[in-house]
Amino acid sequence: MRRVLSIVFMAFLLCTIFSCKTKQDIQYLKDIEDVAIKESIRANTSTIQPGDQLAIVVLAKDNEVAKPFNQNYYSTDMSQYSSMPTRNASVEPTYIVDGKGDIDFPILGSLNTTNMNVDQFKETLKEKLSKYIKNPGVNIRTVNYKVTVLGEVNRTGTFTIDGGQPTTILNVLGLAGDLTIYGQRKNVLVIRNTDGVTTKQYIDLTSAELFNSPYYYIKQNDVIYVSPNKARQSASSYGPQIGIVISVASVLVGVLALLFR
Question: Dihedral (C-alpha) 221, 218, 103, 90: value to the nearest 10 degrees?
Fold first, then answer.
């Protein structure tokens, strides 16, 4: 009778071990594209942050009027505002947002960017410039742009690309510490938000066609999501207590083995 009860108990224990899956799967396995799209929209409307580098050019019908606000910057694009000849373009005036959210702007002095995105700050700047320039134009771009990486990489998060120069998806994944062994190399999702229009593309990192993809070069506020492979999905379906259960089971199996002697 004791042996029968032992066998029943052992069978019950093993069934418990192999059926102790949690009801929750990995969060990103559900609605992957929705998660990435929401992050892309959030990033695209994010506010200016300390450390951001803003290239700002003030435009006017008369270049001489705008000159004090441009730190001697001239652009051939300004010819549409004036019949005066223009010099070759030089480096755009760039302003670094300090820890308080301020930039030091010519003539206008300290300007605060807190809780404003680029478009909102542009309107604020135009309003202040209107005291000196009739119908001023303002061009603002973020020189150091941000990219978000999610999923099966060693370091998820938002990364700042300094200099504003184009960088590749491979370089960005390198900043994220590369893919983990559980990341799908053939199914990397890139979400891009351009002028309010969201596009998405799955990329195969193992194919040479990657170099011809319009998503090979990463743009401002792109979101990259690395999907988990089947091994990770299977492992995630078990609860975090599985290690404890297996350890206890091992002890009990050892005890049961002694009973069958």
Answer: -150
CA proximity to 165, closest of 226, 247, 220: 220
Distance separating alpha carbons of residues 149 and 171, to the nearest angstrom: 12
- SS3 string, the chain, reads CHHHHHHHHHHHHHHHHHCCECCCCCHHHCCHHHHHHHHHHHHHCCCCCCCCEEEEEEECCCHHHHHHHCCCCCCHHHHHHCCCCCCCCCCCCEEECCCCCEEEECCCEEEECCCCCHHHHHHHHHHHHCCCCCCCEEEEEECCEEEEEEECECCCEEEEEHHHCCEEHHHHHHHCCCECCCEEEEEEEEEEEECCEEEEEEECCCCHHHHHCCCCEECCCCEEEEEECHHHHHHHCECCCHHHHHHHHHHHHHHHHHHCC
Express each pLDDT in 35-89 by its tens digit. 666 666 666 566 888 888 899 999 998 888 898 998 756 544 444 444 343 444 4
Tally of CB atoms within 10 A around 119: 10
Long-range contacts of range 185-189, CB-CB < 8 Å, 24 or more positions apart?
Answer: 187/227, 188/224, 188/225, 188/226, 188/227, 189/32, 189/33, 189/36, 189/224, 189/225, 189/226, 189/227
The label of the residue with tokens 């942050």 reads 49
pTM for the structure as a whole: 0.57
